[in-house]
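[worker-b] picked up task from shared queue
[worker-b] task type: protein-ligand structure
[worker-b] ligand name resolved to magnesium ion; SMILES cross-checked against name lookup, match
[worker-b] sequence length check passed
[worker-b] input payload:
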Amino acid sequence: MKEYYEAIEKFHQKFEMKDTNNEDMNFRLNLLIEELGELAQAVTKGKSRENIIEENIDLLNLIIGNFVSMGIGVDEIDDAFWKKYEKIMDRTKKKVNNGNYRVSEFKE
Ligand SMILES: [Mg+2]
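[worker-b] inference finished, payload out:
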């Protein structure tokens, strides 16, 4: 995580993103939606594994960039990750209405 974070932090510094629209979360949400659309196209159009990996990396970089933009450091991300991980590991897996399986906090 630390290496990725520092790399994206360097990217933000190189392109002087601080205090510009580049670090504005509303702008970044649009970028995320755009990249999610690209991933959706790669998957639904049966693009190559390499292309699907690249689109996932675009999303990963943007998400790490969100943390950089909000001044959320590696330690805070690490704490939040493991806190959430504990929660998801306590979830259950069920077959839902459409026949797909989901892991979630199902309410009885
Ligand atoms: Mg892309």
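[worker-b] attaching auto-annotations
[worker-b] The chain has a mean pLDDT of 96.
[worker-b] releasing lock
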